[in-house]
Amino acid sequence: MKKVSAVTKEKSDTKSKPKRVIRRISTSYITTLDQKKQGAIRAGFGEALVEATKKDNNIRVLSADLTDSLKLTEFKNTYPKKFYQMGICEQNMMSAAAGMAHIGKIPFVCSYAVFSPGRNWDQLRVSVCYSNHNVKIIGGHAGLTTGPDGATHQALEDIAITRVLPNLSVVVPCDEEESRKATIAIAQKEGPCYLRLSREKSLNITNKKSPFKLGEANVLDEGLDVTIIACGIMLQFALRAREQLKKEGISAAVINMHTIKPLDVKTLLKYAKKTNAIVSCEEHQKIGGLGSAISEVLSQQYPTPLEIIGVENSFGESGSGYELLEAYKLGEKDIINAVKKVLKRKNK
Amino acid sequence: MNIVELQIQANEIRQSIIDMLYHAKSGHTAGALGMADIMTYLYFKEMKVNPKKPKLATRDLFFLSNGHTAPILYATLAHRGFFPIDELKTLRKLHSRLQGHPSVASHNSHDSLPGVENSGGPLGQGVSQAVGASAELKRSNSKRRVFCFVGDGELQEGMCWESFMFAHKEQTDNLVVIVDKNDIQIDGNPKEVLAFDNVHNKFTSFGFKVVDFDGNDMNQIHHVFEEIKKLSGKPICLLAKTTPGKGVSFMEGDYHWHGKAPNEEERKLALDELESQRILLEGKSEVKEK
């Protein structure tokens, strides 16, 4: 634990209020926020799959004609007998995987999120989740940052339609290294899991030493005024927003909620009680995603002012990935505004 | 078991179907009765299964894709000894292991039923699971075989044909897809509902070896299952022409019985008719023994 700074609003307050100490939680996170240090979330996944298969002979990979795009070429070449080219047949891919899981295999079903779990949700629901089969669903090209392909290919609803299913875990890694860890973790966890991957390169936030455990949120920065909870590539903007807010004397905790289901309710409530104001960030519809999951817990257990950063009940459009995030009010600036708004509500 | 013994067994399974559907007060009668002869043959003659060890890793697999015909699967499993016949009366009741459509996993509300290999109901998914399992078994040079029942109306689901393309590609000659060609679906005849015809040619062009036969004739069933053992290199499709409601004259061929259960009077009529058929079969069996 390393003290980064101690902020005090007004000197006269220091006697009556506890000392405002902000800690950066751990040196196991890269904290320079250097734009150049980027990695591909997809690449972390593809490499980890090969690594995981060295340890577990039962892993199988099913690809619906998107082998290279999902970084499965290395796996295909290394383990040709464990690799299934399924063609453009996402529905069959999902149920066929369930059949393989039924005889003890661990199939990874790989496509773009709009197709899987989008197109084959019924197969996911019955063949996989109701049957509680050990199938891993990999939804690539999720979110607005899918970019130029436009709305048809930008999954903004996949968290909503997966987290509603019993037995299914939902995981959204924030960067290349975390994607690697998440892949290995879901391979080892018995039961159906959905892993959501973004296409765009993102800032390397975590490193080999960073902790990762399914269902356990990671607190990246401590803070006293507000808690910013983000998943996936939105985490980098949450961290940047935090730096800006610090300059304005606002102390924000930042939490990486990489597992959306099961949600780490304990950490969520701890920070709701500590900061009494929360901002959630996701590259997904506001309806049904991380923000919804958080509000379901808070409204029932500890009502806390919450602002949700996400897409406002609309489809996306063509554009470059990060340009779209700004256009749809998912940027660093929007997080800062949301923090100020939630603080006003808190202090009413 | 010889042919007559198999016929008697199928008859007893039919009687159980009538009884359990009467107790459940809802469910699908016609298809279940029509499939009874083939299901009896599979579980009492053809498949390697062990009711005492339902999860044995060397067993053959049976996937019920037309999951609404669950009563035939349950009745067959019970008569084969996977669970007590008396439990059939719990069909569709709260917390029963005999769900309206089969459930392969245990849940907080109910346990899974021994012998059930897939959760089924939404059509097309069972056949796809069967193909997935058979592809993996084929690649690993396993001797296990995979059987799957699919309804003829069910073949209208696009994913069935996705899975058949995959079976063709993987050359799953360990897979036997049995089409229950009974010419009924909820809204009528498949030919009228969706101009769905030429099933034989459709399967042939998808790379299957196709065999047509009478799915209610135990002699033909026996002959077909013996013949297909000699084949290799292609997945197999058995086009079984069956009579919906088979064995109960007032149900036979009437699509209204697709999704209906018998009331008390209908149950008695059906059981009386089936019992008289059984007595006739017993007579044949005794003549043979003499």
List the helices and strands and how they pair.
The complex is a heterodimer of chains A (348) and B (290).
Chain A: E1 2-6, H1 13-16, E2 21-24, E3 38-39, H2 41-55, E4 59-63, H3 73-78, E5 83-85, H4 90-102, E6 106-112, H5 121-130, E7 136-140, H6 158-163, E8 169-171, H7 176-188, E9 193-196, E10 202-203, E11 218-221, E12 226-230, H8 235-247, E13 252-256, E14 259-261, H9 265-275, E15 278-285, H10 290-301, E16 306-311, H11 321-327, H12 332-346
Parallel strand pairs in A: 4-5, 4-6, 6-7, 7-9, 8-9, 12-13, 12-15, 15-16
Antiparallel strand pairs in A: 1-2, 3-10, 8-14, 11-13
Chain B: H1 3-24, H2 30-34, H3 36-46, E1 61-64, H4 70-80, H5 125-139, E2 146-151, H6 158-170, E3 175-181, H7 190-194, H8 199-205, E4 209-214, H9 218-228, E5 236-241, H10 264-289
Parallel strand pairs in B: 1-2, 2-3, 3-5, 4-5
Helix pairs in contact in B: 1-3, 1-4, 1-10, 3-4, 3-9, 5-6
What can you tell me about this protein's structure?
The complex is a heterodimer of chains A (348) and B (290). Chain A has 348 residues and is α/β, with parallel strands linked by helices. Chain A has 2 domains: 2-36 and 213-346, Rossmann fold (3-Layer(aba) Sandwich), CATH 3.40.50.920; 38-203, 3-Layer(aba) Sandwich (Rossmann fold). In chain A, 36% of the residues lie in helices and 20% in strands. Chain A contains 12 helices and 16 strands. In chain A, the strands form 4 sheets. Chain A has a 7-stranded mixed sheet, sandwiched between helices. In chain A, strands 11-13-12-15-16 form a 5-stranded mixed sheet, sandwiched between helices. The two termini of chain A are 34 Å apart. Chain B has 290 residues and is of the alpha/beta class. Chain B has a single domain, classed as Rossmann fold. A 5-stranded parallel sheet of chain B has the order 1-2-3-5-4, with helices on both faces. In chain B, strand 2 (146-151), helix 6 and strand 3 form a beta-alpha-beta unit. The longest helix of chain B has 26 residues, at 264-289. Chain B starts with a helix and ends with a helix. In chain B, 50% of the residues are buried. The interface between A and B is medium-sized, with 28 and 32 residues.
